[in-house]
Amino acid sequence: MLSQIEMPASERKRPWYLVLALFLAVLFGVVGARSGWITVTLYREQIDPALAGQGIADEADRAAVVARVEAYVRALDAAKARGWPLGIASLLIGGATLFFAMRAMSGSASGRVALVQLVIVQAGIAGASHFLLRDVEQADLATYEAIKAAQFHEEIPDRRRADELTGNTAKLFHAAAPIALAFQLLGSALIVVALTRRRSLAFFESTAATVGER
């Protein structure tokens, strides 16, 4: 009993939900930074739609893929005023979320405070990107659908069966984006709750007191 009372504060274990929340925050940080980097790269590098059709034997499928990529590029350019700042924001906030999640993992109380704010901001960026860039998202999904259709037509002799698989795959593609957004919003809420619970605050306060953090 006495040994438990005299146990150094720095050795106090993190609550299990705090550990999970911090790992989830790291994941969100990596995904957000990667998503932002991809968006920035798309706007900085020129996309050649003709390259998308390389390797596709069927002429009709090749033309469909190239046409979809051209439509995607037009949508991307039309949305630059929205997409570019959201991409930069996603890159910066994602990187900052990753950084402060690692600090919070080490027991930093200031890292916890910053992480709570960043997780909320990142969720807002994810929601804004989903609703403000729907045209780009739909054009991107249409491109993937055309690519999968070409693959199925090449792999499956039965054209009707290939088209059926394409339709089912397209439904999965279209369902993935809102599901991913819902997962991030729910996950962000759980992270904030975990970081602000009493046991979590006690852990960070005790760690800060041990290392003399201000």
Give a verbal description of the structure:
- The protein has 214 residues and is mainly α.
- It has one domain (16-209).
- 85% of the residues lie in helices and 0% in strands.
- The longest helix has 38 residues, at 159-196.
Which characteristics define this entry?
disordered N terminus, elongated, mainly alpha, 214 residues, 0% strand
Structural class, please? mainly alpha
Overall pLDDT level:
88
Computed Rg: 23 Å
Q: Helix count?
A: 9
Net shape = elongated
Number of domains: 1
Biggest sheet: strands, sense, closure? none
Strand and helix order: HHHHHHHHH
Separation of termini? 31 Å
Task: Tell me the number of strands.
Answer: 0
Would you kindly provide a brief summary of this structure?
By secondary structure, the chain is an all-alpha fold.
Give the SSE map.
Layout: H1 2-5, H2 16-44, H3 49-52, H4 59-78, H5 80-105, H6 109-132, H7 134-155, H8 159-196, H9 198-211
